[in-house]
Structures are given as structure tokens and as C-alpha cells.
Design goal:
The protein has 405 residues and is an alpha+beta fold. It is built from 17 helices and 14 strands. The strands form 4 sheets. A 4-stranded antiparallel sheet has the order 2-1-10-9, covered by helices on one side. α3 runs parallel beside α9 and α12 packs antiparallel against α13. The longest helix has 19 residues. The protein binds heme C (5 copies).
Length: 405
């Protein structure tokens, strides 16, 4: 990373070049340290998942002696599951262009621990299976393929073991006095925590019930899908949100749009996961799309120098705002408003559209990520406002959705 990168990608980079310079001397130490943190987190959290439960005969009937088997070895007998996994973001966790565009700015062992978990410890550039298979079968199924080992145990523990080890982690903090890195106290990704809080307030679904639905493949066998769809699925995104947009004419030619976006069928915040994900609602009048108003639902951060209790100076990122849509049965939601001035008393059409973005468009452009990859239209609508109407409701139920009680 260099100064030019810093200027090109001001919002993305976790590292400042001067911190990198301070840290560079300690790079091998950092690598060892972070590998230790990540892998021990994974190992600790995944204990149940990896515990031997199947009798040894089951293991050898899988032909998995030594558990070095790659996904190719599973494809023979689990072709449908392997086919789904091949199309998943888990398989492309290392090769994916969005990940690679970020990793180029922050080439840290910290990242490799999760995005290329089969990579041998000190390898700076994962190759072969570690790169190509990303989060492969044996990362989750361990030596005895025993995902079911946790099915019987308590659900929260099971979810933490299966998914939480990777879908929950804190920001890295850079230790400026002694050099090196540690984990900060604030979550960088909080998906598991968001889910846990939703469960505490009454949500009953597990990660698998939404992300590994039962499917029947062409061979007719029922299994849990390994496609692991997320925010790249328009259908899933759409099922996550209820939108209700209204318009009110006010005095002196002011027109107000009230935009309510709340959670429907989802088990965590929307968006969740990576720090740069956002929802954007755009609202405009008549043909004036170029003058549209924007409402953003996202987390916001700032970087700070802080002293920890031991007096150590650290450079950390802190969340300063979270305007995301919270999971169902969480906080009450009130509409957000945008205003248009000098609106004539004649008829108008208010247009709105809501989309999901992997990252802010200017950031995507600077990383050469195509708009079509970065942005996904979730829903759109329009409201006819005639001269007499004081308040008009857009169709609050999305077309095709079942009636809500
Ligand atoms: C020679 C065929 C064969 C190969 C190769 C094979 N499996 Fe299996 N596997 C089976 C059969 C048969 C079952 C039991 C029926 C079922 O659940 O589909 C099974 C069941 C499983 C289960 C469910 C375990 C349980 O406790 O019920 C998992 C998980 C699994 N396999 C993972 C894998 C993985 C990962 C690989 C590759 C590393 C693999 N298998 C390779 C045949 C195979
Ligand atoms: C991200 C973690 C993850 C990855 C990667 C993964 N699995 Fe699974 N798999 C699971 C979980 C969790 C379950 C159990 C779902 C349940 O029953 O709740 C499961 C269940 C299974 C089962 C049991 C049958 C079923 O559908 O319930 C088989 C067989 C299986 N996986 C094979 C594979 C193979 C083969 C691969 C690689 C091509 C693979 N898995 C990759 C997490 C994973
Ligand atoms: C070894 C770490 C690891 C484990 C275990 C794991 N994941 Fe993931 N998962 C990842 C990474 C890394 C990505 C992002 C890959 C990318 O896009 O670069 C991801 C992506 C996903 C996505 C897709 C996000 C998108 O952008 O489309 C979903 C959904 C998901 N995981 C759900 C799960 C669930 C459910 C479990 C538990 C059954 C699980 N994961 C277990 C690391 C893991
Ligand atoms: C009630 C259903 C439901 C449950 C439970 C649920 N999810 Fe999701 N998940 C969704 C929907 C819908 C989306 C798409 C909207 C979004 O991105 O937030 C999604 C998106 C995601 C993404 C994609 C984030 C991205 O940026 O692409 C990940 C990763 C994920 N979920 C992981 C998990 C994990 C891990 C759990 C369990 C701790 C879980 N989910 C529980 C419904 C669910
Ligand atoms: C503890 C595990 C973990 C670590 C460490 C980690 N990630 Fe991730 N990363 C994930 C998971 C889980 C997701 C999936 C969430 C989502 O898609 O929103 C993800 C998603 C991403 C995405 C979005 C990928 C896509 O295809 O849209 C980028 C970019 C990314 N990570 C970059 C990095 C970088 C760079 C580092 C190192 C500075 C890093 N990650 C460290 C677990 C991790």
C-alpha cells in the first residue's frame, strides 16, 4: 500500500500508511499473532463441529483418511451439494473480485485466516486448493464430516460453532507504542451478535433455516442447500424488507416523502456483514431524477487514537452511527423524511427506489468493481399526487408478497 492508494481509496483503507510503516517492521510478528488469534478463535468456537462423533468406520467409508480430502473427493457421492457450494461465496472467499480488490489494500494474515483458511500458516499468497476452494467442505465439516454433531446441542452454541466463528469478529487495532496488532473491542462484523439479540427478543430461526433451506436436487435427494445465498440474491433481499412510502403536501409548496423501511423475514440487521454494505433509498419528483434525495442505511466509522487501560497507544476504528434496518422485534422504527420545496399545486408523481450496495459507488468505481456487481435494485414504486390529496400512500405490500396479518 502506498500514498497513491490512500488518496484513491480514502474510505476503504483500514490502515494508514504511517501505521503500516510502523507495523511493517513487525510484520512477521503480526502474521503469527493474527493467525493465532483467528485460528484459535475458529478452533475454539468450532470445537463441537470438529469433535469426533461418527464411528471410525463411517469416516473410512467416506474414503477420507487423514482428512486431506478436497471438495473434488466429495463430489462423487455428494454431487448436488458440491454443485451448490461451487456457486457459493464460500467457495470464492479468496478468489472473489470484491474481496481481492480490498485485500490488495490490506494484504494481512488477519484476512487470510478467514478468507483462505486452508492456507499454510506463513504462505503470503495462497495457491492451489487453499486459493481455489476457499471455505471448503472440510473447513466446516472437519475431520469426521460431522456437522450433525452439534445438531443435538444447545442452539446458540451450535450456531456459534457453525457460523459465528467467522461471521462475528472485532476490528484490528494497531499498537503504536510496542508495535504490532491486537483485536479491538468493537465488532467489525456483528452478524452473529445481531442474530443472538434478535433471538433474545423472540426471533426463532437459525442461520441454516434461512441460508441452508431444504432442497431437492435433480437426483431427487432432499438435502440442505449449500448455495449460501446472501445479499447477491434479489429474492432474498426483497424478502428481508417491508417498504412503505407516503407523501404529504405541506404549506408553502413543500412536499414531504415519508419513507419507512423495516425488517421482514431476516435474522439480523439489513445490511449485515461487511462494513461497507448499505441500503439506499432514492426519491424524486416527476422527471427530476438528477435531483433525487437519498436516504442511506449503513454503519459509519471514524478512526481514533486511543489509550488502552495499560496506557498503550492504539489506532482503532469506532462505530459512530448505525442507521441500518434492525431485525424484526427490535427497536420501533419511525419513517425518515425528505422534503421538496417550491412544488407547484398541480399533479405530480413521486418516484422511489431502494437498492442494496456492496459499498459506496465511488469506492466501487475506484476499485473497478462494475455497477452491476455493486448495486442491486430491491424494489421501486411511484405515487400519484393530485392537487387535492394531502396524503397518499404507496402500495405498502410488495407485489406478489402474501398478505400480512
Ligand atoms: C464414497 C461416497 C462418499 C464420499 C466420497 C463422501 N461421502 Fe459423505 N456421505 C456418504 C453417504 C452414503 C452418506 C450418508 C447418506 C447421506 O447423508 O447423504 C454421507 C454422509 C455425509 C455427511 C452427513 C454426516 C452425518 O453424520 O450424517 C456429511 C457431512 C458428509 N457426508 C460429508 C462429506 C464430505 C465433506 C466429503 C468429502 C470430503 C464426503 N462426505 C465424501 C458418501 C460419501
Ligand atoms: C460454511 C460451512 C459449510 C461448508 C463450506 C460445507 N458444509 Fe455441508 N453442512 C454444513 C452444515 C451446517 C450442515 C448441517 C445442516 C443442518 O442439518 O442443520 C451441513 C450438512 C451437510 C451434509 C448432510 C446432508 C444434509 O444436507 O443435511 C452433507 C452431506 C454435507 N453437508 C456435505 C458437504 C460437502 C460435500 C461440502 C463441500 C462441497 C460441504 N458440505 C460444505 C456446513 C457446511
Ligand atoms: C471459515 C469461516 C466461515 C464459516 C465457518 C462460515 N462462513 Fe459464511 N462466509 C465466510 C466468508 C469469508 C464469506 C465471504 C466470502 C466472500 O464473499 O468473499 C462468507 C459468506 C457467507 C454468505 C454469503 C454472503 C454474500 O455476500 O452473498 C452467507 C449467507 C454465509 N456466509 C452464511 C454462513 C452460514 C449460515 C454459516 C454457518 C452454517 C457460515 N456462513 C459459516 C466465512 C465463513
Ligand atoms: C430469518 C432469516 C435469516 C436468518 C435467521 C439469518 N439470516 Fe442471514 N440473511 C437473511 C436475508 C434475508 C439476507 C439478505 C439481506 C441482508 O443482506 O441483510 C441475509 C444476508 C446474510 C449475509 C449476507 C451479507 C452480505 O453482505 O452479503 C450473511 C453473511 C448472513 N446473512 C449470515 C447469517 C448468519 C451467520 C446467520 C446466523 C447467525 C444468519 N444470517 C441468520 C436472512 C436470514
Ligand atoms: C474472522 C473472519 C474474517 C476476517 C479476519 C476477515 N474477513 Fe472479510 N469477510 C468475512 C465474512 C464472514 C464475510 C461475509 C460477510 C459479507 O459478505 O458481508 C466477509 C466479507 C468480506 C468482503 C466482502 C466480499 C464480497 O464478496 O462482497 C470483503 C471485501 C472482505 N471481507 C475483506 C476482508 C479483508 C480485506 C480482511 C482483512 C483486513 C478481512 N476481510 C478479514 C470474514 C472475515
Amino acid at each position: 500500500m502506498n500514498q497513491a492508494h490512500e488518496r484513491e481509496h480514502p474510505t476503504r483503507s483500514l490502515l494508514r500508511s504511517r501505521i503500516l510503516m510502523a507495523a511493517r517492521a513487525h510484520l512477521s510478528l503480526i502474521s503469527t499473532l493474527m493467525l493465532g488469534v483467528t485460528m484459535s478463535a475458529l478452533r475454539g468456537e468450532s470445537q463441537d463441529l470438529r469433535a469426533p462423533v461418527s464411528p471410525p468406520s463411517t469416516v473410512s467409508s467416506h474414503g477420507l483418511r487423514g482428512a486431506r480430502a478436497s471438495a473434488t473427493a466429495c463430489a462423487h457421492c455428494h454431487s448436488e451439494i458440491t454443485g451448490e457450494w461451487t456457486l457459493s461465496q464460500h467457495r470464492t472467499s479468496w478468489t472473489d473480485e470484491v474481496f481481492q480488490s480490498a485485500y490488495r489494500l490490506e494484504p494481512m494474515q488477519f484476512c487470510r485466516g478467514c478468507h483462505a483458511p486452508l492456507n499454510p500458516d506463513a504462505q503470503p499468497v495462497p495457491t492451489g486448493e487453499a486459493a481455489h476452494d476457499g471455505i471448503s467442505c472440510r473447513v466446516c465439516h472437519g475431520e469426521n464430516n460431522s456437522a450433525r454433531a452439534v445438531a443435538a446441542s444447545e442452539e446458540i452454541t451450535a450456531q456459534r460453532a457453525r457460523c459465528g466463528g467467522c461471521h462475528q469478529f472485532n476490528f484490528p487495532a494497531f499498537l503504536l507504542t510496542q508495535g504490532g496488532m491486537a483485536l479491538a473491542s468493537a465488532p467489525m462484523q456483528d452478524t452473529f451478535g445481531e442474530w443472538q439479540r434478535a433471538v433474545a427478543s423472540g426471533m426463532t430461526e437459525t442461520c441454516q433455516s434461512c441460508h441452508m433451506p431444504w432442497v431437492r436436487g435433480p437426483e431427487g435427494r432432499r438435502h440442505r442447500s449449500h448455495r449460501f445465498e446472501g445479499s447477491r440474491s434479489q429474492a432474498l433481499l426483497s424478502s428481508a424488507l417491508i417498504t412503505d412510502v407516503r407523501a404529504t403536501r405541506r404549506a408553502h409548496g413543500v412536499l414531504t416523502a415519508h419513507v419507512l423501511v423495516r425488517a421482514d423475514h431476516v435474522g439480523h440487521a439489513v445490511p449485515t456483514g461487511d462494513v461497507f454494505r448499505r441500503l439506499v433509498v432514492r426519491v424524486w419528483l416527476d422527471q427530476n431524477q438528477s435531483e433525487s434525495r437519498e436516504i442511506v442505511y449503513a454503519r459509519q466509522y471514524e478512526s481514533r487514537y486511543e489509550r488502552d487501560p495499560a496506557g498503550e497507544l492504539r489506532w482503532v476504528r469506532r462505530e459512530v452511527q448505525d442507521t441500518r434496518v434492525q431485525p424484526p422485534s427490535q427497536a420501533l422504527v419511525s419513517p425518515r423524511e425528505v422534503h421538496f420545496a417550491n412544488v407547484t399545486p398541480s399533479t405530480h408523481t413521486l418516484h422511489w427506489r431502494i437498492e442494496h450496495q456492496l459499498m459506496p459507488p465511488e469506492q466501487a468505481a475506484s476499485k473497478h468493481i462494475a455497477d452491476a456487481v455493486n448495486r442491486m435494485l430491491i424494489r421501486e414504486g411511484e405515487i400519484a399526487i393530485d392537487a387535492a390529496n394531502s396524503q397518499v400512500n404507496s402500495n405498502p405490500t410488495p407485489p406478489g408478497a402474501p398478505p400480512r396479518g
